[in-house]
Design a protein that fits this description.
Residues 94-699 form the Pyrrolo-quinoline quinone repeat domain. This protein has 727 residues and is mainly beta. It contains five helices and 41 strands. A hairpin with a 6-residue loop joins strand 36 and strand 37.
């Protein structure tokens, strides 16, 4: 085989995984000029686009455990919080999803180093027991990072069962069966982590002094005793709270929780993923606070009712279709704030029906006061977002180094590859941000685009320049020509190319570009920030309501909804608006290869003292997949799409999986070179963690796979350690 063809074949690794997962079906394609069939409808046409009645009932099964309504608490009765393990983790612990309250993903453990990491071996594999049953559509993507506190390794299955394991052997010490049903899975069966909480009212040694908390796919909060796994009876209703209260009309799977809720000054703060692409009047993106001890409702932040922090009364519900937040939030006990990464209002690709209040807080970081539920500041990363650039990453708290000392700061990654650094107290940028002209006015009737968009000019961008026709790629000259033709057929004027109806438009960066839910890792001692990211453009087109119906695009609450015909990613009905959306990767659908040249994923080290790139390298090899879905088994490091984050240790290593080659690797922090790797039993779309137990350091990764990335699904938590006695 000629070298050029060999390399081109290898470049397909990871592309099948991204491509097929983002389309409504393998046979769907962008419809072209016929998408205008039926003409344009006005947003005000009759009552066609009106929201549901406030008194419309929730479907059976939405209140999964038939929990009673939760009473609102008098804030004067709020339970004070004692210092938590995650505020200052013991050296050998990993006490929170991001290691600590700062979400640094950094561990002070240094037993494993570049010199000895080559001796890492599997210590044990634990099976969570959660994966698709025969005949079930694969919606699994566990995305789990365990936590370790004291003598317990705590984790959750993709379907929200909670477990305590022996940290040395993986022996299951207890298991709490959450009872989540298959029909409650939204876009993904995932549980990113659990939360460890120490009570201020229950004495040490008594049940539920230490607790494990999770939020579930079927919208419950659950607290159990950390030692026994038994429900904490004094929390909510026998240990559970119904989070569908006040949400109004819905069906199972429309609203869910996959991220661990932070506890800030004794308040559990919840957000929820609302399934994208369904309808304008989807359930609310409301943010809520609950007492960590009793589970009683504290407050709500409802975007369109910003001054009403109460629960809705009878026949009422929270404002529908408001921007939802599905990413992991970060708490700040000192400032009494929770930093909420927001997404778009419902109907991602059409903004003409959004309110001014919604436009002001979408695709932003909103700092909410945990005593009142009121925003203290807002920093927006995209104005009037119609590209699905919602905020997927957990922000990281750092002490930002400056000439006159450090400033409490927040590092904010985005899907655009723009990284913003903000003052935690005020939301003001600590590094330059420019409002640059953006393509306007747009071509969709009545949907005007913002004339400018924010650019973080003080940080290196995780991405590449705008696409050119000469960037088109392929296995052969014919494939490259095919991609050139697709490029010419689409609207593309660079980043923020407005949506179009007459023909497709190229979205670059794509909605899976830049940093997503894996977030970043930060070493405060060296000031080094580590980020892995994607480089995958999309090929999108709006279609009229008539054409959307013809394509069979129905929302999840429609009796004719096809679970395999569209969802959170890819084609969407966008019911209650004049348009549906067709989304595909910008790819050669015959070979499954992307049309842009590689790499399609990379990992970067940035010195936060100088804001310079220390090293950058493609992330992911061609070994596991290739054109037409065939694995190439080639070890070429060409960079594949990736989901899941990095982890740093004081031993001078970065551990990361994430890529579609199903590998976990250790990278030398100084050089960026991979010094160890292992092939996992499933896709490594999760963030690794590390802990110490009885003098031995372990590294754990959930190799659960990911339906979106088309990597193998497993229920394997894989844990590594050096051989006994190694130094």
């Amino acid at each position: 085989m000629r070298p050029s063809l060999l390399i081109a074949t290898a470049l397909a690794a990871g592309l099948i995984s991204t491509a097929h997962a983002q389309v409504a079906s393998k046979s769907s394609s962008v419809p072209g000029t016929g998408a205008q069939e039926g003409g344009n409808q006005s947003p005000g046409e009759a009552n066609r686009f009106a929201g549901p009645s406030p008194s419309a009932p929730q479907a059976p099964g939405v209140n999964a455990a038939n929990l009673p309504d939760d009473p609102q608490m008098d804030m004067s009765q709020a339970t004070p919080m004692v210092p938590q393990q995650s505020a200052n983790p013991a050296p050998g612990d990993w006490s929170a999803y991001g290691h600590d309250d700062d979400a640094t993903r950094y561990s002070p453990l240094d037993q494993i180093t570049p010199a000895n990491v080559g001796q890492l071996q599997r210590a044990f594999i634990y099976h969570t027991g959660s994966k698709p049953a025969p005949g079930q559509q694969n919606k699994w993507a566990a995305e789990t990072t365990p936590i370790k506190v004291g003598d317990g390794l705590y984790t959750c299955s993709a379907m929200n069962d909670m477990m305590k394991l022996d940290p040395a052997t993986g022996k299951e010490l207890w298991r709490f069966n959450a009872g989540v049903k298959y029909h409650s899975i939204p876009y993904t069966a995932a549980c990113k982590s659990v939360v460890y909480y120490t009570s201020s009212t229950v004495p040490e040694g008594q049940p539920c002094h230490n607790r494990i908390l999770e939020a579930t796919l079927d919208e419950r909060l659950i607290e159990v005793d950390a030692d026994t796994g038994k429900a904490c009876e004094a929390f909510g209703f026998h240990g559970q709270i119904n989070l569908m209260q006040g949400m109004g009309e819905s069906v199972p799977g429309f609203v869910s929780e996959t991220a661990p809720p932070p506890i800030v000054n004794g308040v559990i703060v919840t957000n929820q993923e609302v399934l994208d692409g369904q309808r304008r009047w989807a359930p609310s993106g409301v943010i809520r606070g609950y007492d960590a001890e009793t589970g009683k409702f504290d407050w709500a932040w409802d975007v369109n009712r910003p001054d009403d922090h109460n629960q809705p009364g009878p026949g009422e519900h929270y404002s529908r279709g408001t921007p939802n937040s599905w990413a992991a939030m970060t708490g700040d006990n000192a400032l009494g704030l929770v930093y909420v990464p927001t997404g778009n209002s419902a109907a991602d690709y059409y903004s003409a029906m959004r309110t001014d209040k919604e436009n002001a807080v979408s695709s932003a970081i909103v700092a909410i006061d945990v005593k009142t539920g009121s925003p203290r500041w807002v920093f927006q990363t995209v104005h009037k977002d119609v590209w699905d650039y919602d905020m997927g990453s957990q922000p990281t708290k750092i002490d930002f180094p400056g000439p006159n000392g450090s400033t409490p700061a927040l590092v904010v990654p985005t899907k655009r590859g723009q990284t913003f650094v903000l003052d935690r107290a005020t939301g003001k940028p600590l590094l330059p941000v420019e409002e640059r002209p953006a393509p306007t006015p747009g071509v969709v009737p009545g949907d005007v685009r913002s004339p400018t968009q924010p650019w973080s000019t003080g940080m290196p961008r995780l991405g590449f320049p705008p696409l050119k026709e000469s960037d088109m790629w392929g296995m052969s000259p014919i494939d490259q020509l095919f991609c050139r033709i697709k490029y010419r057929k689409a609207n593309y004027v660079g980043e923020f190319t407005p949506p179009s109806i007459d023909k497709p438009w190229i979205e670059y960066p794509g909605y899976n570009g830049g940093s997503d839910w894996g977030s970043m890792a930060y070493d405060a001692k060296t000031g080094i920030l580590i980020a892995n990211w994607n480089n995958t453009p999309m090929y999108d087109q709006l279609v009229t309501r008539k054409h959307a119906d013809k394509l069979g695009l129905m929302p999840i609450d429609d009796p004719n909804f096809n679970p395999s015909g569209g969802g959170a990613e890819g084609n969407g009905a966008m019911a209650d608006t004049p348009y549906g959306i067709v989304v595909t990767p910008f790819w050669d659908q015959y070979t499954g290869m992307m049309c842009n040249r590689p790499p399609y994923g990379a990992i970067t080290a940035i010195d936060m003292h100088t804001r310079k790139v220390l090293w950058q390298t493609p992330l992911g090899t061609a070994r596991a997949n290739g054109p037409w879905g065939l694995p190439t088994y080639l070890p070429l490091n060409i960079g594949t799409p990736n989901n899941g984050g990095p982890m740093i240790t004081a031993g001078g290593l970065v551990f990361v999986a994430a890529a579609t080659d199903n590998m976990i690797r250790a990278i030398d922090m100084k050089t960026g070179k991979t010094v160890w790797s292992d092939v996992l039993p499933g896709g490594g779309q999760a963030t690794p963690m590390t802990y110490e137990y009885k003098g031995r350091q372990y590294v754990a990764i959930m190799a659960g796979g990911h339906h979106f990335m088309m990597t193998p699904v497993s229920d394997d938590l894989v844990v590594y350690a050096l051989p006994e006695g190694t130094h």
